[in-house]
Amino acid sequence: MLGEQREGRGVTDETGPWLVVGLGNPGRGYAGNRHNVGFMVADLLAGRLGARFGRHKRAVAEVAEGRLGFGGPKLVLVKPLTYMNLSGGPVAGLAQFHKVPPGRVIAVHDELDIGYGQLRVKCGGGEGGHNGLRSMSKSLGTKEYVRVRFGIGRPPGRQDPADYVLSDFGAVERKELEFLVDRAADVVESVVTRGVEPTQNLYHGV
């Protein structure tokens, strides 16, 4: 884990916190859905930081805060408690509260357009029909934030994509899910510590 590797190196926080947004829907009924993989990554990152999520007083979201390693960059981890299509409001409010510019906001989300388990990073661009990203872009007033895209692949046959993303990962997928969520957390840490382009070079060939 990158945070652990950097511990003890005396990394200083020179440019403020990062807002890492795990996109998903609140409630137990959605917990295992493909659409909630962003929540899964956020939960894992909180565990790495030794942080716990708690309800924020000024935003409809759960928030956990911590640093990557000793004196490293601060992460503000966010799980919006609105439904997916209203995620942008809490994100924009927290970005303003913590004075985080859009370029230091990372959205972790499911992605239909890449194969299961593939991870891709980009800054800006379209939302690909993802309601959470669409809401974030509208509320932030820009598309120029970082996306960590967790591939879930296209639905089989004629299944409606809306039904597919709101269904749980299949049995075969679940065998690899823990490993893939762990790798996605590594990608987030790499964006923070290395930058977008070096992270693309490191992970896009995997």
TrEMBL record:
Highest taxon in the source lineage: Bacteria
Enzyme class: hydrolase
Keyword Membrane listed: no
MF GO annotations: peptidyl-tRNA hydrolase activity; tRNA binding
InterPro entries: Pept_tRNA_hydro, Pept_tRNA_hydro_CS, Pept_tRNA_hydro_sf
GO CC field: cytoplasm
Known catalytic reactions: an N-acyl-L-alpha-aminoacyl-tRNA + H2O = an N-acyl-L-amino acid + a tRNA + H(+)
Binding positions (tRNA): 30, 83, 85, 131
Site (Stabilizes the basic form of H active site to accept a proton): 110
Record Pfam families: Pept_tRNA_hydro
Record keywords, A-Z: Cytoplasm, Hydrolase, RNA-binding, tRNA-binding
Active-site residues, Swiss-Prot/TrEMBL: 35 (proton acceptor)
PROSITE patterns: PEPT_TRNA_HYDROL_1 (PS01195), PEPT_TRNA_HYDROL_2 (PS01196)
BP term (GO), one: protein quality control for misfolded or incompletely synthesized proteins
Localization in the cell: Cytoplasm
UniProt EC number: 3.1.1.29
Site (described: Discriminates between blocked and unblocked aminoacyl-tRNA): 25
Cross-referenced HAMAP family: Pept_tRNA_hydro_bact
Record text on subunit structure and interactions: Monomer.
Function summary: Hydrolyzes ribosome-free peptidyl-tRNAs (with 1 or more amino acids incorporated), which drop off the ribosome during protein synthesis, or as a result of ribosome stalling.
NCBIfam families with a match to the protein in the record: pth
Family: Belongs to the PTH family.
Protein name, as recorded: Peptidyl-tRNA hydrolase
Species name: Micromonospora citrea
